[in-house]
Amino acid sequence: MNDYPQIADHGLIGDLQTAALVSSDGTIDWFCSPRFDSPSIFASLLDREKGGRFSISPKAETFEVKQLYFPDTAVLVTRFLTEEGVGELIDFMPATGEAASERHRLVRIVRCVRGSMDFDIEVSPRFDYGRSSHQVTVGDGVATFTTDATVLTVSLVRHPDDERLAEIDPAPDGDLRASVRLVEGQLRGIVLETAPSGAPGVVPVAEAKRLFDDTVHFWQDWVEQSTYTGRWREEVQRSAITLKLLTYAPTGGLVAAPTAGLPEQIGGERNWDYRFTWVRDASFSVRTLVRLGYTAEAAAFGAWLRDRVTEQAGSATGPLNIMYRVDGDPELDEETIEGWEGYRGSYPVRIGNGAAGQLQLDIYGEALDAVYQVDRSGIEIGQPGWKALTQLLDWLADNWDQPEEGIWETRGGRKDFTYGRLMCWVAFDRGIRLAATHGRPAPLKRWRSARDAIYNQIMEKGWNEERRAFVQQYGETVLDASLLKMSQVGFISPQDPMWLDTLRAMEEELVSDSLVYRYDPSASPDGLAGSEGTFSLCTFLYVDALARAGRLAEARITFEKMLTYANRLGLFSEEIALTGEQLGNFPQAFTHLALIDAALTLNDRLDGHHPDRVM
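Above: the chain's sequence. Below: its structure in token form.
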């Protein structure tokens, strides 16, 4: 199992409808098309033999690798250093646009910048998680893979009349292999295209350069829209670009991660499909993007959320599901890819997500807070949206006081989670604020009664006098890092003695040298076998809570330490193992959202600014 790359040993490229992971050895080992949640074409990250790959790497037996993003872009540059010379692999996907498309392009440019270099190329697709066979035809500098559902073309990048430095050779197994020798100054490449608009043809070098220039300008123009000028600007920008890459442009939906099946524990069963839009993640992204000045993206996410609130096509658990496909489809049936070994033996490999129908009451608070934040940015909710919102809050007024599965999607049964109640309080609080600000009709007496009842219940049942802390669930003593949001959402003052005691209790039980566990599974069984690493989201929530509590020196060193766990490109997965290895789906939107929030909050406090408590 040692022939798998580290999860963190990847960069991310994408076109705002799907994305690909590129390992540092030049292998694309994860790519789904035409959408993030579509079946895979390359997935050797989950099974080295059966998943499929697209690799470009030096022929040399040993080489050194350096990897970076072209400044302020999602264009990935992998540099190979050998005894004979230095070569570069430049990977990107031209932006597809806001209309849903079957057509997507992976552009891979290779060039020699010093000396000479021989490259080996392999294109080995395995369609539909390896379940669909394909045929391949080869022409002059082009090839076409065909299945019953997919057409995929491969085109060489070269001058029309230049020397043939590379040719595509079909292998007996239906894959393609090639090699190319370049000397200093020479540039070639390959363009892979799904659902091409016409017959494949060789791509001129000038066209490949134009695609590169257009993609660079697209990303740099987008980054310039940010209003953030504070500390850690490079880390904040990289996180913002990552969030943009995880956005499905046609609907504004944000996927939790572009991958499925990457484990929270190597060899364990906590291997989930994250290629969907969680109401929670999308809601948090609205708030974060507003703070960065990306109001158009915040409005798009808000529109996706408004559509879910308006249609209220949830399930038996309530008017909203906890997650949807990027187009808003609530059907996410979970299945296992039989015969795949999983990343480093982490089986099962799941696609779809069986947690979609869980009752998680916190999503209503997160949804209402997102609507509130968008409203504060100047984009008011219309009458149809307000009507749907009042119906949602009326449902919540009847249903908030019941056990649920909770934010962490545990599979150990419903319980009275404090965080769920907290976010129900947020839902009513934000609804009351919106009604008061705009004079909208609303049953304010009922909403205030529910809000105050939740507040009193949390103070009575969510507080554990023995632990001197707010706890994960009523009647228990287990702590939960999700409650680090209590001061952030304005439920309690960051200087309140009860809150400061809670912080101290969490530090004793959940914090490990700046890293934070979300909870202790051994103390609060979640229905799953195995353990997990520290949760990167929770570490950034901890930084935010420390900064709000005025513990700025501790907040800053904790934040700086956490940044050292990023990979060489500034990307984070979901969790950090005891060894410092990144675990879980990669890169994770939630982590990068929390990084941005922590950076902005800490920067404001260091500058002496104290924004409104509900920000």
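Residues 137 and 144 are 5 Å apart (CA to CA).
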